[in-house]
Design brief:
This protein has 520 residues and is mainly alpha-helical. It folds into 3 domains: 125 residues, Rossmann fold (3-Layer(aba) Sandwich); 186 residues, Serine Threonine Protein Phosphatase 5, Tetratricopeptide repeat (Alpha Horseshoe), CATH 1.25.40; 180 residues, Orthogonal Bundle (DNA Cyclobutane Dipyrimidine Photolyase, subunit A, domain 3), CATH 1.10.579.10. It is built from 22 helices and 7 strands. The protein has a 5-stranded parallel sheet with strand order 3-2-1-4-5, sandwiched between helices. The longest helix is centred in the middle third of the chain and has 25 residues. 45% of the residues are buried. Bound molecules: flavin-adenine dinucleotide, ligand DLZ and iron/sulfur cluster. The site of flavin-adenine dinucleotide has 28 residues, from helix 9, helix 11, helix 14 and helix 16.
Length: 520
């Protein structure tokens, strides 16, 4: 009786449930690099290299521990290209009688796994992924009877259940949420700490060469690869964050600055999502920094809320509502994604900066994703599926369970308010307040109309007009709709005409667009 234990590229945790009770002498641990996973969207080159290299290093550590690892490389001539076909080959190779896996992070893969027992006439045990604070069942109990969800209420229950930042039954510092302290723009002359970059070792270089050979057409600068690919290095990155960045994390969480892609953010999401770090150890490390007076409460609470609150909340929503979640399109967006999301070739400096940094690092921080590329997609009425595929491809941390609710729900409001109480639509004034992007932009952030007016300004009121039926009864949208109601018909017609002109031009090749839009 040989048991096959399958480990996926985002399950690189020694304590993963599929390895519970592993028998080093008899069981086979299967890990497979498969073409289907590397191409189901056109992932950033660094994302592919990160996952494959982390997989190879993890396999090496299991082998050193004495486990029998069967590792199938992407360029193995017999590689059959998918999880299902590789499991089939492994069953034949090792005379397998039972498969043990941990539930995957994506519905698509869960669907695959559920077919294996029947397809292979074999016992398949799909174990819970207990790396999360909140199991799928626990979330379902919380969600029961609620028509829409709010992260804040979910988060408070998680705080009570885990005891994180609790003083008895009360939240530390007497407040659950310190968000109002966390919206400062970056002072002039602030110098965020330099980040650790991990020089690729021979194993990573081999993977980078493979990626260059096969995926040169995918977005991204592979030579700029500096991600940790082992638990040891990921722990070093965490430690550096806690010491050097966490104290200022809260204050400047929403700030953006040219040439500073990371600011005071942790840049650990790929490590958390692949399993090199666990959510629990990261939250405990942050809490300890507060207990030792090394970081203020507003920073530590703000950071823990992202993980214990948002990360768990979006996962719960994903599993509670898939596969139907992806079908909704409450605001009816149909527009194709403009090519500048891939090239960065746009006169809008904020978008150009974020796309260039995304290409360089496979990373952008939350406010860049939400209020620049996300906000633009919302205002421009991009089809949800188009922008979802982009986010899933371009970030090293992107897996559907976390990407989809953030894009479909938080950014595009395509779920009609299930995840968030209102769309995060904003004009250029928000970007101007929180960044220095507007200073070197060809557009004028103060101008509301005309060819040189900031496109976010031109699109903002158009978005409100276009979505009046869907949004005007939302109490949280009362203010913009009151302002809109005071506008004359002539002004509304002008807004619509100018926005439509911009949207038509936006889809033209960049050289023509620049000349006609900005009249340069
Ligand atoms: P920090 O700011 O240091 O935050 C700490 C940790 O909190 C992150 O590492 C992450 O694990 C967690 N976190 C923070 N915000 C969220 C959130 N909204 N949802 C879930 N976890 C959160 N995060 C992903 O991990 N994968 C994605 O594919 C992804 N797609 C996103 C798409 C959009 C449109 C938006 C608005 C957000 C998305 N996020 C995603 C959430 C967030 O932007 C990233 O987790 C964060 O930018 C990662 O950088 P960091 O590690 O420096 O985060
Ligand atoms: C994202 C990814 C990529 C690019 N390649 C692989 C791979 O070759 N082998 C593997 O096991 N996992 C890979 N992954 C991660 C999977 O896509 C991820 O495990 C599933 O989407 C489930 O979350
Ligand atoms: Fe972006 Fe508008 Fe500012 Fe230009 S002016 S950087 S387009 S917000």
């Amino acid at each position: 009786m040989t048991t096959l234990r399958l480990i996926l590229g985002d399950q690189l945790t020694r304590d993963i449930s599929s390895l519970d009770g592993v028998d080093g002498a008899h069981d086979i641990v299967l890990m497979a690099e498969v073409a289907e996973e590397t191409t189901y969207v056109r992932h950033h080159q660094q994302k592919i290299a990160f996952i494959l290299s982390a997989m190879r290093h993890f396999a090496q550590s299991l082998t050193q521990e004495g486990l029998r690892v069967d590792y199938v490389k992407l360029d193995d001539p017999d590689n059959a290209g998918s999880f299902t076909s590789e499991v089939a080959r492994a069953i034949a190779r090792h005379k397998i009688s039972r498969i043990i896996v941990t539930e995957p992070g994506e519905w698509r893969v869960m669907d695959m796994m559920r077919s294996w027992s029947h397809a292979f006439s074999i016992d398949v045990e799909i174990r819970e992924d207990d790396r999360f604070f909140c199991s799928r069942g626990r979330f379902a109990r919380w969600a029961e009877g609620r028509k829409s969800y709010r992260m804040e209420f979910f988060y408070r229950e998680m705080r009570r259940e885990t005891g994180l930042l609790m003083e008895g039954d009360e939240p530390a510092g007497g407040q659950w949420n310190f968000d109002h302290d966390n919206r400062k723009s970056l002072p002039k002359g602030a110098k965020p700490p330099k980040r650790d970059r991990f020089t690729p070792d021979a194993m990573t270089r081999e993977v980078m060469d493979l990626v260059t050979q096969r995926y040169a057409q995918h977005i991204g600068d592979i030579e700029n690869f500096g991600w940790a690919v082992t638990r040891k290095d990921a722990l070093e990155a965490l430690d550096h964050f806690i010491q050097a960045c966490l104290p200022a994390y809260g204050d400047y969480q929403d700030a953006m600055k040219e040439g500073e892609p990371f600011l005071y953010h942790s840049v650990i999401s790929p490590y958390l999502n692949c399993g090199l770090l666990t959510a629990r150890e990261v939250c405990l490390a942050a809490e300890l920094a507060w207990k030792k007076d090394q970081a203020p409460l507003n920073a530590v609470e703000g950071f823990i809320r992202q993980i214990l609150g948002w990360r768990e909340y979006v996962r719960g929503i994903y599993w509670q509502h898939m596969p139907n979640y992806v079908q909704s399109n409450a605001l009816g967006g149909t527009r194709k994604l403009p090519s500048f999301y891939w090239t960065g070739d746009t006169a809008m400096n904020c978008i150009a900066q974020v796309v260039e940094e995304t290409k360089a690092n496979a990373y952008a921080h939350h406010i860049q994703r939400l209020m620049v590329t996300g906000n633009f997609a919302l205002l421009a009425g991009i089809a949800p599926a188009e922008i979802e595929a982009w986010y899933l491809a371009v970030y090293a941390d992107a897996f559907e369970w976390v990407e989809l609710p953030n894009v479909h729900g938080m950014v595009m409001f395509a779920d009609g308010g299930l995840l968030a109480s209102k769309p995060y639509a904003a004009s250029g004034a928000y970007i101007d307040r929180m960044s220095d992007y507007c200073k070197s932009c060809a557009y004028d952030v103060k101008a509301k109309s005309g060819a040189t007016a900031c496109p976010f300004n031109r699109l903002y009121w158009h978005f409100m007009i276009e979505n009046q039926t869907a949004l005007s009864r939302n109490p949280r949208m009362a203010m913009p709709y009151r302002t809109l109601s005071k506008m004359t018909d002539a002004r509304r017609a002008e807004i619509t005409r100018e926005a439509q002109e911009f949207l038509e031009e936006m889809d033209r090749p960049p050289s023509i667009r620049h000349q006609t839009q900005l009249k340069l």
